[in-house]
Amino acid sequence: MNKDLEINKTRINTLIQSLPRGTVLLPSWLLSQGYSYELQQCYRKGGWLKSIGKGAMLKSNDPFVLAGALSALQKFAQVNIHVGGRSALELQGVAHYLQINSHETTLFVNGNIKLPRWFTNNEWDTKTRLFRLSLFDDETMGMADFKDGEQTMKISNLDRAIMECIALCPAQFPLSEAYELMEGLSGLRPAKVQQLLEKCKSVKVKRLFLYFAEKAEHGWFKYLDVKKIDLGAGNRSLTGSGVLIPKYKLILPEELV
Q1: CB neighbours (10 Å) of residue 59?
Q2: Which terminus of the chain has fewer Cβ atoms in its 10 Å neighbourhood, N or C?
Q3: What distance in Å separates the CA atoms of residue 8 and residue 44, rounded to the nearest whole number?
Q4: What confidence tens digit (pLDDT) does each residue in 75-116 have?
């Protein structure tokens, strides 16, 4: 019995040392790594692991880290949830000069995905705001690996993040702020932008992105092939009263024209 206990201690120590602090552990993943459900229960009873809700655990002394939860959902459960929009721009150094609420992390998830209660019911190290949005034919497009402390997770790259901001305009994100963010994106790669715009399902996002990019006079804009991007038909109004931009068939507030 003592021999079994020592073996269990050795195995859990190996696990603890191999994973970053704050990593959320899912029973199904632990099982795939050779840790039976009985062994997992033994680790919980022994105080090595702690339950944080049905279907999730932390190492006993680990903090509740949002990046650890997102990493687990992405890697272990293959759930397409990620930091995006303004928060992703912030993390990549674009939005730091704006007067924004850095204490809230903007998350995006596909509209039909049900998130586990252990994720929605726990308090992480940052407040979150969740948007359910499906912008692209392939929702894995436009993602980048980002290291947050000890954790690595996927977030929106700059191209996708600004499109997510624009998708929330004007009801949930100010048009003026979206344009200010676009002004700071002088280094985007036209090939990546082109690919995302061609696969984007929102006519509003595509039109507004192109208008903002052209207005900001970014050098990469001239390399885009607008003819390959479906911009739909008819005018789109994003304000109660404003000015029509004929080229993009957008009605915008006068200060943005």
Answers
A1: 19
A2: N
A3: 12
A4: 999 999 999 999 999 999 987 655 555 578 999 998 889 999
